Amino acid sequence: QGQLVESGGGLVQAGGSLRLSCAASGRTFSGYTMGWFRQAPGKERTFVAAINWSGGRTYYADSVKGRFTVSRDNAKNTMYLQMNSLKPEGTAVYYCAVRVVSAGPYATREEDFGSWGQGTRVTVSS
Has residue 60 got a pLDDT over 90? Predict the structure, then answer.
């Protein structure tokens, strides 16, 4: 079945940076588009960024464009999210997931992704 495990979250001051990792185990996800979502306290889970199987195509939520960078290392079966210039509104639990095969190439809906990890918490202090 395989599973995804996020890591790298923590407490950071506004303007700071963090790098999240999403490691796959039990199977390879190297042939799939993968994405990052986040869920702020009391809010729904929302799309952050995604990357295709080769790493050659990425897309982002408008709120993080220019500040976040998604990448992957298929040899390590790991995806990353480099987050720079963090803002307090970035406080959330961050999740990684795999885009389902039937979803469109620029899917951003939660239902377009599956195999969710357990999440890693990011807190941005002002």
Answer: yes
